[in-house]
Amino acid sequence: MNRIDGSELDGRLLQLLLTVLDCGSVTAAAQQLGVTQSAVSHGLERLRVITGDALFVRSGRGIVPTDRALAMAQPARELIAAMQQLARQARFEPAEWEAEITIAANDFQRDLLLPPLALRLRERAPGLRLRVIPSGVPRLEMLRRDECQLVISPRPPEGSDILQKRLFEDSYRVFYDPSMRDAPLTRDDYLAAGHATVVYEPRRSLDLDQRLEAAGVHRRFAVMVTGFGALAPFLRGTRLLATVPGLLGRHTLAGLASVPPPLPCPAMPMYLLWHARHQHDPSQAWLRAQLQEVAVRAVQQPSDESGTRRGGDAAATASMTLG
Question: What is the rounded distance in angstroms from the CA atom of residue 10 to the CA atom of residue 70?
C-alpha cells in the first residue's frame, strides 16, 4: 500500500474529499463546490493515486467511503483549519509582543526620536527590546539582509523593494556660541567665518554641504567630525558656525544660539524606510505607526530658540531678503 505523499496533497483536494464525504455523492459535492461532476471525479482520481486507496466505492445507486477515507477526514479538517489560520492575518497584541527590533539612525535622528519611542514601547509593548545601531550612510542591504527592520534617513529609498514614509521636514539653521560672536547676518559675514560640519565615513559630506558647494557657495571648514553629537564642543568657546538641522537645538546643540542661514538653503526631509517583507506584518505596522506619532510630537514640541539667539529677527529678515 502506498503512503500518502504530502507534497502531492493540497487544500483543494482535501476540501473535495470532505465535501464528498459530507454529501455522500459526487453530484451533490459538485453542486456544493460549484464545479462540474467531471472535476470532482478527476480530483478523486488524483487522491486515489496519491493514497493508493479507492476512498469511495459503489453501494447500490450511491457511494460509501472506505475506511481510509473515513480515517483521513479528521486530519483533513484540522489541516484545512490550520491553512485558513495561516492565511489569516495574525492577531497582534502589543502587550504580548516578545521580540527584538533593530533601528538604524544617526545621532541626530536617534536623540530626537528614539528615547521617546523607547519610553512609549516600555509602556505599550514591555516585551519588546529596542536595539539602535548607527546608520552612517544608510545602505539598502541593511534592510535586505534584515540587519535592521527600520532605517531613518533624509534620503528616499532607491530600491523597489524598499518602502518609505515621510516622517517630518526640518529647516537648516546656523548654530554658534553667542558669548563669542554675533549672529551672521549677511552672506559675506557667513562666508567669512570658519565652519564646522559632519562628514560621514568614508568621507561622505552632508547633502546640504554638497548642494551649496555645487551652487558655488564655498565655505572654509575648520573642523569636520563624524557625527552631529561631536559639534557642540567645537562651537563652544569659538567663533565657528555650523549649518545643520534646526531640531538639533532641542538636544545635541541645546544652549547654543541659532539663526536661519543668510542664503537660500533647501529644507531637509526625513524618511522612515523598511523592507517590503515587513509591509503587511501587523506588529511591524504598529511599530511604524508608533514612530510616526513620536516624530509628529517631536517636531511640534515648542522650541526655546528665542531666549538663546542674538540678532535672530534681523537674521531672519536678511534670509528672506537674500533668498
Answer: 18
pLDDT per residue as tens digits for the range 161-181: 999 999 999 999 999 999 999
Q: What are phi and psi of 227, to 5 degrees?
A: -160, 160
Task: Return the C-alpha cell found at 320.
Answer: 528672506
Predicted TM-score of the model (pTM): 0.68
Catalogue the long-range contacts made by 316-320 (C-beta closer than 8 Å, 24 or more residues apart): 316/259, 316/260, 318/185, 318/186, 318/262, 319/259, 319/260, 319/261, 319/262, 319/263
Report helix, strand or coil for 165.
strand
| pLDDT number for residue 302 | 65
Average pLDDT over residues 190-214: 89
Q: What are phi and psi of 81, to 5 degrees?
A: -60, -40
Alpha-helix runs per DSSP H in 135-281: 140-144, 187-192, 207-214, 231-235
Residue with cell 469511495: 56
Q: Which cell is 313 given?
A: 529677527
